[in-house]
Specification:
This protein is of the alpha/beta class. The chain contains 15 helices and 30 strands.
Length: about 575
């Protein structure tokens, strides 16, 4: 591994490092990373002849995608008057036009504001208005819902999801002039590139402002991690990396993350565009259909949340499908049990398994763990990626020693510029040259990161700190447990008491007492839930698959009310 990294980062090599100082942070960056986002798009013409995206029976080729993006960019510039630095909201569901819209907007140096299109109309309007957007691009499934909101009069255009046609005020906008070229607009390293909203499990979402340098560093970091994995695979097969790359088929990713999320946008979409890869989209999650697409589209990578991977394992005729092209499976969004990890590893022996820890505010991945290291250390979130430094700090912002639990703090070029128009929040999380994540964890003596909990999800019961994530990880190890969420409720005697909602796997049986007995065997006594409730319905989750604690509490109280 050290030899591989040394070769890839040597002077003149593709991933040579250099030092930089950014907003008071000492950072490691790549010497030859692109300076701004629109520089990437010049390379799209190299992929003519390949498929860019597949959705609902429609295929978008790179040639046509380039033409569409170029025409939309010139429409925005010449007809609407969009210029560099202006905010343009993109509120669309996953579809090929989302990709070309993103290219068009950012090619002008405009700031793409990536709105959660799955939110309520009020949520969409809030995000658009509170980031001072000058223009809105949406689709036929979203636009009607915005008619009675405070952004109803904002200038906009609408894509039809069935045909891909674009219109404004019912007038068609032509996107087929093949003489148009995608603009290249120089931007400074600290100029905002995009705004992505935090998941908002509590309160209103905040828009994280990600700079061009941050975005390009995050993308190059992903490429570096992929190159390291590729070099390891090449060494395993006894060939060089260039030979492996030359004989590798077109990368093809089954996309289930929303494109307005940092994983969908940066880790999958932008990475795919740079590589000339294909993105295959499902309208909604369906395990049977996913297997059909893996076979038909020769899917090579499937990043998803644990529930999706478990669903794949449960398809009765899974072994009838040719899944031999699938070489990469990554797990994100929630804790993964060792039982599921082993099951996925057994079912897909030719795949490299990976997981990690990341966030919008850091342009995606913060730490990664793959392959044997993941299987040998399944509760770890891995080691810091090449351009991010992790420190564990106490309440006085002092660094803690190995294995001491504290707040996870980060610094590096990928850290956001700040939340848009959120001075108080920025002052709280961006201080002393570090980003304070609000997550709780520790580092072991090998530099592996372990996530304990969100600070806001720590329960204090009888004076003892109980971290929900730790309890949830243990409950997930029970063979009958499909998913679980824990939270605190007020208690006169204890201050707070811990509640666990548990949904069982299909065909499994277990009582609340069984689950609690298992918890007692694997947790300190004070960490065992005061009450465990077996539920039949799914736990409420947001678009990044995080359990939503307020809604989970409401579910609990509704169940108690029905029980009298």
């Amino acid at each position: 591994m050290k030899e591989i990294v040394a070769q890839l980062t040597a002077p003149g090599a593709p991933f040579e490092f250099e030092d930089a100082h950014i907003r008071g942070m000492q950072c490691r960056v790549f010497k030859d990373a692109p300076e701004y986002l629109s520089q990437l798009y010049a390379g799209l013409s190299q992929h003519v002849g390949k498929t860019m995206a597949v959705f609902e029976g429609r295929r978008l080729e790179y040639k046509d995608g380039n033409v569409q993006a170029a025409n939309l960019a010139h429409y925005l510039k010449d007809t609407i008057g969009i210029t560099a630095g202006q905010h343009v909201a993109i509120a669309m569901r996953n579809c090929p036009e989302w990709i070309t819209t993103f290219i068009a907007v950012t090619s002008l140096g405009a700031v793409g504001v990536l709105v959660n299109s799955r939110g309520t109309a009020d949520d969409v309007a809030y995000c658009v208005k509170n980031t001072d957007c000058d223009y809105l691009i949406t689709d036929s499934s979203i636009a009607p819902r915005l008619a009675n909101t405070e952004i109803a009069e904002l200038p906009n255009c609408v894509f039809d999801l069935e045909s891909g046609a674009l219109s404004s005020n019912s007038e068609s906008i032509a996107l087929n002039n093949e003489s148009m070229e995608i603009p290249v607009t120089p931007c400074g390293p600290e100029d905002p590139a995009i705004v992505i909203f935090t998941s908002g499990t509590t309160g209103r979402p905040k828009g994280a402002v990600l700079t061009h340098q941050g975005l390009m560093t995050g993308l190059k970091t992903n490429q570096f991690s992929s190159a390291v994995i590729g070099a390891q695979m090449a060494a395993k097969y006894g060939i060089d990396l260039a030979t492996l790359a030359a004989n590798r088929p077109q990368s093809s990713t089954l996309l289930m993350f929303p494109l307005f999320h940092v994983s969908g946008c940066l880790s999958i979409m932008l990475q795919s565009l740079v590589d000339g890869g294909k993105i295959v989209m499902l309208k909604k999650w369906d395990a049977q259909q996913a297997l059909e697409f893996i076979q038909a589209e020769k899917i090579t990578a499937f990043p998803g949340v644990p529930t999706m991977h478990w669903d794949l394992l449960q398809v009765p005729n899974r072994e009838e499908y040719d899944l031999s092209t699938l070489t990469s499976i990554s797990v994100a969004g929630q804790a993964i049990s060792t039982t599921m990890l082993k099951a996925v590893s057994t079912a897909f022996p030719n795949c490299v398994l990976g997981t990690g820890y990341g966030m919008t505010e850091a342009n995606g991945a913060v730490s990664l763990t793959i392959g044997e290291d993941l299987l040998n250390n399944p509760t770890s979130a891995g080691k810091a990626v090449a351009t991010t430094e992790i420190a564990i700090m106490n309440e006085d912002d002092e660094a803690l020693a190995t294995n001491e639990v504290g707040e996870i703090c980060l610094r590096g070029a990928t850290i956001m510029q700040g939340y848009y128009n959120q001075d108080q929040a920025n002052a709280e999380c961006l201080r002393s040259g570090w980003y304070h994540s609000g997550d709780v964890g520790y580092l072991d003596d090998k530099g592996r990161l372990y996530i304990v909990d969100r600070q806001t999800d720590m329960i204090i019961s009888s004076g003892e700190n109980i971290y929900c994530a730790e309890v949830e990880r243990v409950l997930l190890q029970h063979e009958a447990v499909h998913e679980t969420v824990t939270f605190g409720i007020p208690d006169d005697r204890l201050g707070e008491k811990l509640i666990a909602l548990v949904r069982l796997r299909e065909g499994q049986t277990a009582s609340a007492e069984d689950i609690n007995d298992f918890a007692k065997e694997n947790l300190a006594g004070y960490k065992v839930p005061a009450e465990t409730v077996i539920i039949e319905q799914a736990i409420p989750r947001n678009d990044t698959s995080k359990a939503m604690k307020p809604q989970s509490r409401e579910m609990y109280f509704e169940l108690k009310k029905k029980q009298g």
